[in-house]
Each structure stands twice: as structure tokens, then as C-alpha cells.
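Still learning folds. Look over my entry:

…
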Amino acid sequence: KVKYPFLYSHPFLVHPCALFSALQISSFFFSLSLLNMAAGPGSPCGACKFLRRKCAPDCVFAPYFCSEQGVARFAAIHKVFGASNVSKLLLHLPVHDRCEAVVTIAYEAQARLRDPVYGCVAHIFAMQQQVIRSS
């Protein structure tokens, strides 16, 4: 039995970032920057802490995964996508696009852990059905 039967016939899907308001996204970025500033220069980022390696000054993960909460966020990303793949992806992006990419990757990783088959599409579909019911 198919869990989301209308998913196959639905012609329009929304990008996951469209599910959040600009205020939610900006507050997340602000808290992300505050958390990263709280970590001292000698402490490794959450990703390096999780991978049990020394955090290099040019670590691609350091700006996005703080020393405390970053470990849990990175664990989900590593489990779903792998650290090497995410590192390569971030290195191919311009620096000004990396923060949004990390937020999107983290969202998709959490969604994939909750629903391995549909991932974030299940959440998008549920929200689209909510919009359809309310209109």
C-alpha cells in the first residue's frame, strides 16, 4: 500500500525553504552565527568533534556547525549524506550560498531519518494538503 497516494499525481512541489517564513530563517541564521562566535578559537567545530579530528582553520564545516549543538546536527547529515559528499558540495558552492545549503541539507537529513522513503517530500505534501483543505 502506498503511504502518500496523491504524491505521484501532484504536479507541483515546493522547495523546502519555502515552507519557512523569512523571520524563521533569519532567526536561525542569527542564532547560528551567535553559536559559532561562542565557540572559542581552540575548540573544534561540531562536525570535526563528531568526526573526532582536529579542526583546521580553513574547515568548511566550522562556520555552520558550532561546538555544542553542531554535533547533533552534523550527525544526521553524516548519516544520510556522508561528510565527504557534503564537504565536496559545500566547496563547489559560492561562500554566500553555503549557509542556505547547510540549512537545506540539515532539513533533508532530518526528514530522511524520520521518513527514509519520502524525506522532506512527505512534509511538503502534508502542507500542500493542508492548504488545499483550507481553501
Remarks:
- The helical segments are 22-38, 46-51, 70-80, 83-91, 95-114, 120-134.
- The radius of gyration is 17 Å.
